[in-house]
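Anyone opening a protein record will find just a pair of labelled lines. A complete record is shown below as an example:
=====
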Amino acid sequence: MADKTGGTVRIDISFHGLGIPVVQDWVKKEMLRHLAMMCRAIMHRRIRTGKNIGGSPFEAYKPGYAKWKAKKGRKVGAGKDWLVFSGQMLAAHQITELTSEYFILGFTYATEALKAWVNQVKYKRYFIGLTEAEKTEAINNTVAHARAEGWI
């Protein structure tokens, strides 16, 4: 589900719960690193379509911001333009913690975390988080990657 605080997303994975016999911590950590990057990619793919975590279109930009953005030569709410002005906020959306049991996707800079919070909370553009279908997609991709690498 969406993180409506605008903060981070923590995902805990039980490999045994998935029926994957992973014993070595380094394998778990590499699989979680891959899973984290898949989750990030899926969220960013959805953002580019202009949809929130529930599949609804993002609320339109406020007229003043839309006008300012257009004046700066940026497209307004078209194509891959959602939640992007300089690209810094989404670039700062990274793995901020990684263990052999969980990972956290967050923001590496406080200014970019604040932008995310404003979009999530103030403007109700819920983009941080994953649906169950998106989680399944990320997990299936990660398991296939681990098998191709010979880790499991």
Observations:
- Confidence is low (pLDDT under 50) at residues 1-5.
- The CA atoms of residues 124 and 147 lie 39 Å apart.
